[in-house]
TrEMBL record:
GO terms for biological process: L-methionine salvage from S-adenosylmethionine; nucleoside metabolic process. Pfam families: PNP_UDP_1. It comes from Desulfoluna butyratoxydans. One of its GO terms (molecular function) is adenosylhomocysteine nucleosidase activity. Gene3D superfamilies: Nucleoside phosphorylase domain. PANTHER family: 5'-METHYLTHIOADENOSINE/S-ADENOSYLHOMOCYSTEINE NUCLEOSIDASE, 5'-METHYLTHIOADENOSINE_S-ADENOSYLHOMOCYSTEINE NUCLEOSIDASE. This is Nucleoside phosphorylase domain. InterPro entries: Nucleoside_phosphorylase_d, Nucleoside_phosphorylase_sf. GO terms for cellular component: cytosol.
Amino acid sequence: MTKRVSALLAAILLAIFVIGGNHPCAASEMRPIVIQGAMDVETQFMIEKLTDVEEITIGGWRFFKGALEGRPVVVAKTEVGMTNAAASTVLAIERFNPSAIINQGTSGGHAPGLHRYDIVLGKTAVNFGNFRTEHGDAGKGVKPEKWLPMTITVNVKGEAKEFTDFKGDAHLLEVAEKTSAAYKHGKVVTGVIGSADQWNRELDRIAWIHATYNTSAEEMETASAAQVAEAYGVPFLGIRILSNSELHDEGFDPKAGIYCQEFVLDVVRRLKQ
């Protein structure tokens, strides 16, 4: 009798373990892809394309859980800025256990060869607001051209590692590159997405950032989300569309946000294959 009870208890515990999704045999394809955007213009189109949408609010951050043609997807409205994006990413990973994260949305152009509606696939993402200055005496002025980039320390699996930037996941990048042939509103290139709590419009400042960090575009979220994803070991890719470019006197156009969302949804569809 004792052996039968023990066997029954073991079976119940195993069933709970598998149902909970932590068993190695649990279906990994059921884990959602998280797609991030900071503003309505970067998220609303995608939300409307999902079925069976459930809105979940955690603190000050909103998540829209649904499906895209049967594939589980969570659209995360991160809000604007590095801190918001980092917090939203932590919450998304802890709550939804995603198989991958794509941070996407609008950006300003840094590379002279790029124009409004061109898309940058983040081979890397860099925090260009992370720098130090040398000592300067009072009255000697501010010399931003001499500021020095610093590394970022991330605890990865218990080990502190130094990063100058964060690489996009190779598989996600490959799929996005294959999707680029279908994009009709501009070019799709791989490059460096630069992030900071800044909106730069001074051409000399933009030129310095581009020369120092090799940035293709700037925005305010990708690098911080990538940093969190790196710490958790979640595959990550930044995809940014140029919605404006000071270099070419091209003002902000909200249609860019829709074009980027369309492209990202096409990438997610390809990930099913």
